[in-house]
Write a structure and sequence with these properties.
With 235 residues, this protein is an alpha/beta fold. It is built from eight helices and nine strands. It binds NADP nicotinamide-adenine-dinucleotide phosphate. NADP nicotinamide-adenine-dinucleotide phosphate is lined by residues 7-8, 10-14, 32-34, 37, 55-58, 79-82, 103-105, 108, 127, 129-130, 170, 172-173, 175-177. One of its GO terms (molecular function) is oxidoreductase activity.
Length: 235
Protein backbone atom coordinates (compact mmCIF):
# COMPACT_ATOMS: atom_id res chain seq x y z
CA UNK A 1 0.00 0.00 0.00
CA UNK A 2 1.25 3.50 -0.82
CA UNK A 3 2.35 5.46 2.26
CA UNK A 4 2.65 9.26 2.45
CA UNK A 5 4.30 11.18 5.29
CA UNK A 6 2.78 14.67 5.64
CA UNK A 7 4.56 17.25 7.79
CA UNK A 8 1.93 19.90 8.53
CA UNK A 9 -0.76 17.21 8.30
CA UNK A 10 -2.54 18.45 11.44
CA UNK A 11 -4.13 21.44 9.69
CA UNK A 12 -4.87 23.27 6.46
CA UNK A 13 -3.61 21.83 3.19
CA UNK A 14 -1.72 18.99 4.88
CA UNK A 15 -4.87 17.78 6.64
CA UNK A 16 -6.87 18.02 3.38
CA UNK A 17 -4.19 15.91 1.68
CA UNK A 18 -4.39 13.33 4.48
CA UNK A 19 -8.20 13.19 4.05
CA UNK A 20 -7.91 12.70 0.28
CA UNK A 21 -5.34 9.91 0.60
CA UNK A 22 -7.25 8.07 3.34
CA UNK A 23 -10.39 8.26 1.18
CA UNK A 24 -8.35 6.56 -1.59
CA UNK A 25 -7.51 3.77 0.88
CA UNK A 26 -3.82 4.73 1.22
CA UNK A 27 -1.59 4.87 4.34
CA UNK A 28 -0.87 8.24 5.90
CA UNK A 29 1.42 9.53 8.65
CA UNK A 30 0.65 13.10 9.78
CA UNK A 31 3.25 15.10 11.70
CA UNK A 32 3.68 18.52 13.31
CA UNK A 33 4.85 20.06 16.58
CA UNK A 34 1.55 20.12 18.49
CA UNK A 35 0.41 16.65 19.61
CA UNK A 36 -3.09 17.96 20.47
CA UNK A 37 -3.52 19.45 17.00
CA UNK A 38 -2.55 16.07 15.50
CA UNK A 39 -5.03 14.26 17.79
CA UNK A 40 -7.86 16.62 16.82
CA UNK A 41 -7.04 16.13 13.13
CA UNK A 42 -6.90 12.35 13.51
CA UNK A 43 -10.37 12.27 15.10
CA UNK A 44 -11.85 14.33 12.26
CA UNK A 45 -10.12 12.51 9.37
CA UNK A 46 -11.77 9.64 7.49
CA UNK A 47 -11.22 6.13 8.91
CA UNK A 48 -8.18 4.36 7.53
CA UNK A 49 -4.52 3.51 8.05
CA UNK A 50 -3.52 6.73 9.82
CA UNK A 51 -0.67 7.38 12.24
CA UNK A 52 0.41 10.63 13.87
CA UNK A 53 3.80 11.65 15.29
CA UNK A 54 5.28 14.90 16.55
CA UNK A 55 8.19 16.55 14.77
CA UNK A 56 9.77 19.99 14.83
CA UNK A 57 11.46 20.79 11.52
CA UNK A 58 13.80 23.07 13.50
CA UNK A 59 15.13 20.02 15.37
CA UNK A 60 17.15 17.47 13.36
CA UNK A 61 16.83 14.71 16.01
CA UNK A 62 13.04 14.80 15.82
CA UNK A 63 13.21 14.47 12.03
CA UNK A 64 15.21 11.24 12.37
CA UNK A 65 12.76 10.02 15.04
CA UNK A 66 9.85 10.76 12.70
CA UNK A 67 11.43 8.77 9.86
CA UNK A 68 12.11 5.89 12.28
CA UNK A 69 8.48 5.95 13.43
CA UNK A 70 7.09 6.14 9.89
CA UNK A 71 9.28 3.36 8.45
CA UNK A 72 9.75 3.20 4.66
CA UNK A 73 7.45 5.66 2.89
CA UNK A 74 6.66 6.28 -0.77
CA UNK A 75 6.08 10.03 -0.60
CA UNK A 76 6.93 12.90 1.74
CA UNK A 77 5.00 16.17 1.54
CA UNK A 78 5.74 19.12 3.79
CA UNK A 79 3.29 22.01 4.15
CA UNK A 80 4.91 23.35 7.34
CA UNK A 81 5.11 27.10 7.87
CA UNK A 82 5.74 29.13 11.01
CA UNK A 83 4.44 32.64 10.38
CA UNK A 84 4.57 33.98 13.96
CA UNK A 85 5.91 37.56 13.66
CA UNK A 86 7.25 36.76 10.19
CA UNK A 87 4.85 39.12 8.34
CA UNK A 88 6.24 42.47 9.53
CA UNK A 89 8.03 45.45 7.98
CA UNK A 90 11.73 44.58 7.82
CA UNK A 91 12.48 47.35 10.35
CA UNK A 92 10.47 45.42 12.97
CA UNK A 93 11.80 41.90 12.34
CA UNK A 94 13.21 39.75 15.14
CA UNK A 95 16.02 37.57 13.69
CA UNK A 96 14.91 34.63 15.88
CA UNK A 97 11.49 34.65 14.17
CA UNK A 98 13.18 34.91 10.75
CA UNK A 99 15.20 31.79 11.58
CA UNK A 100 12.05 29.98 12.77
CA UNK A 101 10.31 30.76 9.47
CA UNK A 102 13.29 29.48 7.46
CA UNK A 103 13.56 26.38 9.68
CA UNK A 104 9.98 25.37 8.87
CA UNK A 105 10.05 26.17 5.14
CA UNK A 106 13.68 25.67 4.01
CA UNK A 107 16.11 24.15 6.56
CA UNK A 108 13.63 21.51 7.76
CA UNK A 109 12.91 20.33 4.20
CA UNK A 110 16.69 20.17 3.58
CA UNK A 111 16.98 17.91 6.63
CA UNK A 112 14.07 15.80 5.38
CA UNK A 113 16.16 15.42 2.20
CA UNK A 114 19.32 14.64 4.18
CA UNK A 115 17.73 11.47 5.60
CA UNK A 116 15.58 10.55 2.58
CA UNK A 117 17.92 8.03 0.91
CA UNK A 118 16.77 4.52 1.81
CA UNK A 119 13.69 5.85 3.60
CA UNK A 120 11.72 7.58 0.80
CA UNK A 121 10.98 5.54 -2.31
CA UNK A 122 9.51 8.05 -4.76
CA UNK A 123 9.07 11.73 -4.01
CA UNK A 124 9.57 14.74 -1.77
CA UNK A 125 7.24 17.71 -2.27
CA UNK A 126 7.88 21.03 -0.54
CA UNK A 127 5.40 23.92 -0.28
CA UNK A 128 6.49 27.30 -1.66
CA UNK A 129 4.12 30.25 -2.27
CA UNK A 130 3.02 32.88 -4.79
CA UNK A 131 4.62 35.79 -2.89
CA UNK A 132 8.10 34.83 -4.12
CA UNK A 133 6.73 36.27 -7.40
CA UNK A 134 4.17 38.87 -6.21
CA UNK A 135 5.52 40.23 -2.91
CA UNK A 136 3.70 42.79 -0.78
CA UNK A 137 5.23 45.06 1.88
CA UNK A 138 5.70 43.14 5.13
CA UNK A 139 6.17 39.83 3.32
CA UNK A 140 9.94 39.77 2.77
CA UNK A 141 10.72 36.83 5.07
CA UNK A 142 8.18 34.39 3.65
CA UNK A 143 8.83 35.62 0.07
CA UNK A 144 12.54 34.85 0.53
CA UNK A 145 11.77 31.45 2.06
CA UNK A 146 9.39 30.60 -0.79
CA UNK A 147 12.01 31.65 -3.35
CA UNK A 148 14.56 29.48 -1.56
CA UNK A 149 12.18 26.50 -1.78
CA UNK A 150 12.03 26.92 -5.58
CA UNK A 151 15.84 26.86 -5.85
CA UNK A 152 16.04 24.01 -3.34
CA UNK A 153 13.79 21.62 -5.27
CA UNK A 154 15.83 22.10 -8.45
CA UNK A 155 19.07 21.35 -6.58
CA UNK A 156 17.61 18.38 -4.69
CA UNK A 157 16.05 16.94 -7.86
CA UNK A 158 19.52 16.39 -9.31
CA UNK A 159 21.17 15.33 -6.04
CA UNK A 160 18.50 12.99 -4.65
CA UNK A 161 17.61 11.28 -7.96
CA UNK A 162 15.90 8.91 -8.51
CA UNK A 163 13.79 10.40 -5.70
CA UNK A 164 11.76 13.15 -7.43
CA UNK A 165 11.67 16.54 -5.69
CA UNK A 166 9.14 19.25 -6.52
CA UNK A 167 7.43 22.31 -5.08
CA UNK A 168 3.79 23.34 -5.05
CA UNK A 169 3.33 27.12 -4.82
CA UNK A 170 -0.13 28.13 -3.55
CA UNK A 171 -1.84 31.50 -3.75
CA UNK A 172 -4.22 32.52 -0.98
CA UNK A 173 -6.00 29.45 0.34
CA UNK A 174 -8.73 29.48 2.98
CA UNK A 175 -7.07 27.49 5.79
CA UNK A 176 -6.44 27.73 9.53
CA UNK A 177 -3.39 29.88 8.70
CA UNK A 178 -5.67 32.86 8.09
CA UNK A 179 -7.06 32.77 11.65
CA UNK A 180 -3.53 33.52 12.84
CA UNK A 181 -2.61 35.93 10.04
CA UNK A 182 -5.71 38.11 9.83
CA UNK A 183 -7.87 37.43 12.93
CA UNK A 184 -11.22 39.25 12.63
CA UNK A 185 -10.32 40.57 9.17
CA UNK A 186 -9.92 37.06 7.77
CA UNK A 187 -13.21 36.80 5.82
CA UNK A 188 -13.04 40.38 4.50
CA UNK A 189 -9.48 39.96 3.24
CA UNK A 190 -10.17 36.60 1.60
CA UNK A 191 -13.35 37.96 -0.07
CA UNK A 192 -11.44 40.98 -1.41
CA UNK A 193 -8.77 38.71 -2.90
CA UNK A 194 -11.45 36.40 -4.37
CA UNK A 195 -12.94 39.38 -6.23
CA UNK A 196 -9.52 40.19 -7.77
CA UNK A 197 -8.61 36.70 -8.94
CA UNK A 198 -9.32 35.46 -12.48
CA UNK A 199 -11.00 32.36 -11.00
CA UNK A 200 -13.30 34.48 -8.80
CA UNK A 201 -12.48 32.70 -5.55
CA UNK A 202 -9.59 31.96 -3.21
CA UNK A 203 -8.21 28.44 -2.98
CA UNK A 204 -9.65 25.59 -0.97
CA UNK A 205 -7.39 23.22 0.93
CA UNK A 206 -8.76 20.45 -1.33
CA UNK A 207 -7.45 22.27 -4.46
CA UNK A 208 -3.97 21.95 -2.98
CA UNK A 209 -4.50 18.34 -1.89
CA UNK A 210 -5.27 17.51 -5.54
CA UNK A 211 -2.05 19.28 -6.61
CA UNK A 212 0.15 17.47 -4.07
CA UNK A 213 -1.23 14.15 -5.28
CA UNK A 214 -0.73 15.01 -8.97
CA UNK A 215 2.83 16.30 -8.48
CA UNK A 216 4.00 13.53 -6.15
CA UNK A 217 2.56 10.72 -8.31
CA UNK A 218 3.66 11.94 -11.74
CA UNK A 219 6.76 9.86 -12.48
CA UNK A 220 8.04 12.33 -15.12
CA UNK A 221 7.98 15.42 -12.86
CA UNK A 222 11.04 16.49 -10.89
CA UNK A 223 12.68 19.84 -10.10
CA UNK A 224 9.39 21.56 -10.95
CA UNK A 225 7.45 24.34 -9.25
CA UNK A 226 3.72 23.97 -9.84
CA UNK A 227 1.68 27.13 -9.23
CA UNK A 228 -1.82 26.59 -7.83
CA UNK A 229 -2.88 30.18 -7.24
CA UNK A 230 -6.04 30.98 -9.19
CA UNK A 231 -3.99 33.41 -11.28
CA UNK A 232 -2.77 35.41 -8.27
CA UNK A 233 0.68 35.97 -9.82
CA UNK A 234 -1.00 37.78 -12.72
CA UNK A 235 -3.17 40.36 -10.96
N1 LIG B 1 -2.91 29.45 3.20
C1 LIG B 1 -2.41 30.31 2.29
O1 LIG B 1 -3.08 31.29 1.91
C2 LIG B 1 -1.03 30.11 1.72
C3 LIG B 1 -0.58 30.97 0.70
C4 LIG B 1 0.69 30.76 0.13
C5 LIG B 1 1.49 29.74 0.60
N2 LIG B 1 1.04 28.94 1.61
C6 LIG B 1 1.93 27.87 2.07
O2 LIG B 1 1.21 26.65 2.12
C7 LIG B 1 1.70 25.82 3.18
C8 LIG B 1 0.55 25.28 4.02
O3 LIG B 1 -0.18 26.36 4.54
P1 LIG B 1 -1.53 26.14 5.36
O4 LIG B 1 -2.42 27.26 4.98
O5 LIG B 1 -2.00 24.74 5.22
O6 LIG B 1 -0.97 26.43 6.84
P2 LIG B 1 -1.38 25.87 8.28
O7 LIG B 1 -2.79 25.39 8.32
O8 LIG B 1 -0.96 26.93 9.25
O9 LIG B 1 -0.45 24.59 8.44
C9 LIG B 1 0.91 24.70 8.71
C10 LIG B 1 1.32 23.46 9.49
O10 LIG B 1 2.72 23.51 9.69
C11 LIG B 1 3.00 22.93 10.96
N3 LIG B 1 4.30 23.46 11.37
C12 LIG B 1 4.65 24.76 11.53
N4 LIG B 1 5.93 24.86 11.91
C13 LIG B 1 6.41 23.58 12.00
C14 LIG B 1 7.66 23.04 12.37
N5 LIG B 1 8.70 23.81 12.74
N6 LIG B 1 7.82 21.70 12.34
C15 LIG B 1 6.77 20.89 11.98
N7 LIG B 1 5.55 21.36 11.63
C16 LIG B 1 5.38 22.70 11.65
C17 LIG B 1 1.84 23.39 11.84
O11 LIG B 1 1.60 22.50 12.91
P3 LIG B 1 2.21 22.73 14.40
O12 LIG B 1 1.98 24.16 14.75
O13 LIG B 1 1.48 21.73 15.23
O14 LIG B 1 3.67 22.40 14.26
C18 LIG B 1 0.68 23.35 10.87
O15 LIG B 1 0.00 22.10 10.94
C19 LIG B 1 2.71 26.70 3.94
O16 LIG B 1 4.02 26.34 3.54
C20 LIG B 1 2.39 28.11 3.51
O17 LIG B 1 3.53 28.98 3.56
C21 LIG B 1 -0.18 29.12 2.18
Amino acid sequence: MTTTLIIGGGSGMGRALAAALLTRGESVVIAGRDADRLKRAAVALPDGDLRAHTVDLADEETIVELYDHAGPVDHVVTTAVDVRDAYLPVAALDPARVHAAFDAKVVGPLLLAKYAQGRVAESLTITAGFNAHRPAPGGAVIAAANGAVEALVRALAVELAPIRVNAVAPGWVDTDLWDRLAGDERDTRLAAMAARLPVGRVGRAEDLADAFIAVSRNGFTTGSVVHIDGGQRLV
